[in-house]
């Protein structure tokens, strides 16, 4: 099994410092299942590649076990595919890099650099879509090469083996952590006993990214080898570590439901209660449409959900968010576990991402997307469009987003500053309307636009809203 790691960060040979392996020397390490070889196929100032080759002794793995061994214990794919053996090798051979330590280049450890990782063969019975669902939310672009079962008999179809290349700007320790956790998830078959210590490993290696991964439940379930008790423990601890206390929640700015912070957007926009105006505008538009079933996509900590629950004409409300932290706060704010059963039946909270099709989003009359799209990478915006307008197809969609032209009114900001560090873009009125009209045309909607908040002559309102209606929509 072969893993290669490549960087073009210059000087590229600094990869040797990060991995604590000299590019000028090949090294071999003994493991309890075979040997690991580390060498550098290329090492120049412009580009450097480190290779980890595992030589797994499949016979040695079953020696000493009880009798009654079958042939498939000796003849299997373990020496050739990425599996939990790779995770063990990463920990033992690249352990210092995995833990994010490097005395010679301490600043580089914390720097996201261009990295490319190629897994020569990896098993994935769930197919290419599952590969993308695991790695793309982490910021990687994927190149996937599938293999047929037999080149001479194409009618046999595709195998479940792939060569996968991941590329992205990452810290090396993050890339290694992603591989450490997700390779066994893909393989679906750990080679060693799973116990409580595996929960600790998952929480340690998943810290900082697993908490908000849209597939984290499946990741935990598969990593822990289908042990539901351990999975529940891991997920509950992830939620607890990602949540805030009641005291902390009291000082949270309401805009945090949309990802803003008190010292940034909240401090300026709070003066005009623009967040309340956005929510009220979305609420009134949906209420007046006559919709019965409503989606709140990117529901955050639940302020719009509370407003929707007060309207008796809404028969069912679904709140969706990618953050478990926000959903946990929403549950508390809605008194989710204590409300009357009839009210409880009217609302659902769902953990998912807006860039993946989810059958639970179908069958709704209206959707609110309040200050959410600007948190999506531009490369993922088209996926969001398809999920909402092509797959879910609510009759009415209300989308609000900041008006970038208004930012000049915030006198303390530097030019080009976004309202929040997590914003990937902020649109002018013209840019938002051009995008909205394109979406409406592609997916069979009409669209109209209106300001949110008082308008200034030169720059418009602080926020803007697009109202999309399916051309055949009647609530």
UniProtKB/TrEMBL annotation:
It catalyses: small RNA 3'-end nucleotide + S-adenosyl-L-methionine = small RNA 3'-end 2'-O-methylnucleotide + S-adenosyl-L-homocysteine + H(+). It comes from the Bacteria. Residues 243-266 have a biased composition (Acidic residues). Residues 1-238 form the Hen1 N-terminal domain. It is an enzyme of class 2 (transferase). Residues 241-274 are annotated as: Disordered. One of its GO terms (molecular function) is RNA binding. CDD domains: AdoMet_MTases. Its cofactor is Mg(2+). Pfam families: Hen1_L, Methyltransf_23. One of its GO terms (biological process) is RNA methylation. InterPro entries: 3'-RNA_MeTfrase_Hen1_bac (IPR024026), Hen1 (IPR026610), Hen1_N (IPR024740), Hen1_N_sf (IPR038546), SAM-dependent_MTases_sf (IPR029063). Its EC number is 2.1.1.386. Keywords: Magnesium, Metal-binding, Methyltransferase, RNA-binding, RNA-mediated gene silencing, S-adenosyl-L-methionine, Transferase. The keyword Cell membrane does not apply. Belongs to the methyltransferase superfamily. HEN1 family. NCBIfam families: bacter_Hen1 (TIGR04074). This is Small RNA 2'-O-methyltransferase. It comes from Ktedonobacter racemifer DSM 44963. The lineage of its organism: Bacteria, Bacillati, Chloroflexota, Ktedonobacteria, Ktedonobacterales.
């Amino acid at each position: 099994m072969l893993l290669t790691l490549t960087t073009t960060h210059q000087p590229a040979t600094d990869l040797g410092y990060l991995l604590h392996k000299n590019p000028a020397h090949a090294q071999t390490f003994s493991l309890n299942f075979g040997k690991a070889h580390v060498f550098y196929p290329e090492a120049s100032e412009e580009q450097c590649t480190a290779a980890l080759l595992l030589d797994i002794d499949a016979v040695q793995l079953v020696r000493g076990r009880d009798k009654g061994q079958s042939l498939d214990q000796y003849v299997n794919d373990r020496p050739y595919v990425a599996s939990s053996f790779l995770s063990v090798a990463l920990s033992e051979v690249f352990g210092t890099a995995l833990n994010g330590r490097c005395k010679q280049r301490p600043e580089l450890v914390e720097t996201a650099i261009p990295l490319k990782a190629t897994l020569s063969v990896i098993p994935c019975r769930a197919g290419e879509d599952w590969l993308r669902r695991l790695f793309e939310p982490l910021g990687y672009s994927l190149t996937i090469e599938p293999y047929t079962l037999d080149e001479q008999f194409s009618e046999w179809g595709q195998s479940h083996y792939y060569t996968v290349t991941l590329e992205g700007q990452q810290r090396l320790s993050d890339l290694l952590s992603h591989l450490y956790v997700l390779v066994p998830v893909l393989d679906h078959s750990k080679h060693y006993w799973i116990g409580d210590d595996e929960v600790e490993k998952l929480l340690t290696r998943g810290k900082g990214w697993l908490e908000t991964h849209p597939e984290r439940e499946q990741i935990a379930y598969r990593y822990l080898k289908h042990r539901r008790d351990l999975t529940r423990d891991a997920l509950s601890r992830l939620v607890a570590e990602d949540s805030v206390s009641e005291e902390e929640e009291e000082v949270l700015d309401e805009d945090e439901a949309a990802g803003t912070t008190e010292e940034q957007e909240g401090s300026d926009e709070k003066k005009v209660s623009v967040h309340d105006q956005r929510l009220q505008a979305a609420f009134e538009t949906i209420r007046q449409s006559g919709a019965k079933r409503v989606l709140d996509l990117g529901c955050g900590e639940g302020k719009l959900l509370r407003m929707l629950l007060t309207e008796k004409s809404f028969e069912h409300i679904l709140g969706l968010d990618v953050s478990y932290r926000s959903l946990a706060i929403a549950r508390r704010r809605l008194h989710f576990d204590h409300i009357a059963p009839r009210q409880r039946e009217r609302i659902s909270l769902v953990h998912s991402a807006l860039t993946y099709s989810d059958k639970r989003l179908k069958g709704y009359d209206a959707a609110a997307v309040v200050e959410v799209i600007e948190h999506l990478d531009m490369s993922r915006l088209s996926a969001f469009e398809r999920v909402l307008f092509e797959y879910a197809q609510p009759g009415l969609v209300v989308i609000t987003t900041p008006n970038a032209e208004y930012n000049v009114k915030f006198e303390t900001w530097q030019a080009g500053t976004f309202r929040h560090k997590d914003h990937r873009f902020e649109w002018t009125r013209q840019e938002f309307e051009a995008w909205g009209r394109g979406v409406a045309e592609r997916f069979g909607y009409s669209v109209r636009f209106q300001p949110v908040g008082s308008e200034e002559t030169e720059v418009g309102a602080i926020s803007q809203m697009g109202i999309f209606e399916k051309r055949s929509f009647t609530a």
